């Protein structure tokens, strides 16, 4: 079945041109939707009760206040509006240079706490244009910086292995992933320690704040630099917060660069490979003997570097291998083996 | 200077192994930092005045209220806390299934409005684990779906060109970028029309909301489904909101897939090319004549498909070309031209 599937991909004039990519995309959509359903159910179970209890408590307190002070309904609504609008001001001036810089960071990194949001229409318009340019710039910068960090870490690890006198000093992807994971956890813990000290939060809440910030979710339930006018009165702490966010995003970016980036291009690589296969077959005139690469393209790519045992090809019991194949890049058909040694594997993503 | 730079890259045992990548990364950091400074200055100019005026107005109103009702300071602070905590409840139950699903979407897409945030510690912990798995899953899904969308659009455009009787039916990258841009604007406008109708916002505010949502910034200053208990009383509108967010993110994802994704892998591709160059040179024994590919690797890659005019090579006036080169993939050294036609350009990113 395996051979037949990839053979179908390479047949000239085939209508369902990209079965692998479509199956992969459809599976991902299904996965994500199921993930949302499961998450919704769990959050419901965890938070609903507490929400009801808290609501009842607040309603009680509100009735007490209204009885004590005898507000008119309009006055109470006015008071509510007043308190809600005054809240951001309580944390100090949000739009002086330090505050604006903080805001600009939350825009281009897409963290978007919302502790401050443009009040004027001109501010909203500028915010949108600022984001259009700034977000791609930031994406590329953090990926670039993250890749450099990975190269540095790989080099350091190699030196470490050499110093430790290990026999094999080659740094594997597993090594890199473990180090990346530890770096992320370390960065979060370091931030948690710092912010719990400066903001007066518990360690757990500060850790949660760092996590929500560095994943760029940015709820805004916890926001640094909002206490005691820190934005204007504590410049070293302000600088630390900014640097922490930018460094932390680099570490996360490096980890994503290592682990996730290759999956973002699977469909495109398979498309290209399919297109090559079809183009290669089109150059065959009827009656011509097929060259090795075309023979392979017609019958289905032989696994040149994939670890699929040959005995598996075509057997029904190999659905597991097909599933794995769905989420890795398709193997490239071997071309003119004489050149293999001097050529890179054309489209295989390698971790750096 | 151009030849000398790339030659330096390929020299065996060269200490500064990746000048291009380091220069690129450093330039990006400098760019981003300058961008933040400029943004901060503009936001300061746009928002500071309004902030001061609004603060004075609110303080006035507060004094009026305190004089009218004669609050004790503790009572007023208590009232403030009460109003702030009661605010999320005013929009209705946030953690029933529909609300939790909405919240789960804001987590895995990293929008993170913050209109609802886990109140319990268990909710916070689950939220973090939920995000760790959900965010990469969502990234990959949207890129996959976006790539499929790009393929479909490309095919449609080709059919359109054919029907319109155009001579050249090939769909260029420029065509795709224009269509992608129009799709993004169209999606935003459509959402703005819908949300301004359902939420009672102005068209501009609804557009701003859609923009902030689909870029995943998610301030939370405008949040859909918070009026009149829409989460529980208007299921079709709820379904529309969810679908809009997911479809909109796909359209944005497709555009990013087309325009930005290739830049995320520039450093890695250059690293690989440099490594090949060095590996290729190491196989040369002293006294051996260099093969064409090695000769090229030693002297610096000749532009095989780059549009840099030959007369430019080495001239001082070509700093512009060098700048362009910094932000595109390095050209690959031509290898055994006989194979060029049947080989893909090894590492050139092509838009799909």
Automatic annotation (TrEMBL), chains A, B:
<dbReference type="GO" id="GO:0015271">
    <property type="term" value="F:outward rectifier potassium channel activity"/>
</dbReference>
<feature type="transmembrane region" description="Helical">
    <location>
        <begin position="122"/>
        <end position="142"/>
    </location>
</feature>
<protein>
    <submittedName>
        <fullName>Potassium two pore domain channel subfamily K member 15</fullName>
    </submittedName>
</protein>
<keyword id="KW-0813">Transport</keyword>
<dbReference type="GO" id="GO:0005886">
    <property type="term" value="C:plasma membrane"/>
</dbReference>
<feature type="domain" description="Potassium channel">
    <location>
        <begin position="93"/>
        <end position="149"/>
    </location>
</feature>
<keyword id="KW-0407">Ion channel</keyword>
<dbReference type="InterPro" id="IPR013099">
    <property type="entry name" value="K_chnl_dom"/>
</dbReference>
<keyword id="KW-0472">Membrane</keyword>
<keyword id="KW-1133">Transmembrane helix</keyword>
<keyword id="KW-0406">Ion transport</keyword>
<keyword id="KW-0633">Potassium transport</keyword>
<dbReference type="GO" id="GO:0022841">
    <property type="term" value="F:potassium ion leak channel activity"/>
</dbReference>
<feature type="transmembrane region" description="Helical">
    <location>
        <begin position="206"/>
        <end position="225"/>
    </location>
</feature>
<keyword id="KW-0812">Transmembrane</keyword>
<feature type="transmembrane region" description="Helical">
    <location>
        <begin position="237"/>
        <end position="264"/>
    </location>
</feature>
<keyword id="KW-0630">Potassium</keyword>
<dbReference type="InterPro" id="IPR003280">
    <property type="entry name" value="2pore_dom_K_chnl"/>
</dbReference>
<dbReference type="GO" id="GO:0030322">
    <property type="term" value="P:stabilization of membrane potential"/>
</dbReference>
<feature type="transmembrane region" description="Helical">
    <location>
        <begin position="97"/>
        <end position="116"/>
    </location>
</feature>
<feature type="domain" description="Potassium channel">
    <location>
        <begin position="185"/>
        <end position="260"/>
    </location>
</feature>
<comment type="similarity">
    <text>Belongs to the two pore domain potassium channel (TC 1.A.1.8) family.</text>
</comment>
<feature type="transmembrane region" description="Helical">
    <location>
        <begin position="176"/>
        <end position="194"/>
    </location>
</feature>
<dbReference type="Pfam" id="PF07885">
    <property type="entry name" value="Ion_trans_2"/>
</dbReference>
<dbReference type="InterPro" id="IPR003092">
    <property type="entry name" value="2pore_dom_K_chnl_TASK"/>
</dbReference>
<keyword id="KW-0631">Potassium channel</keyword>
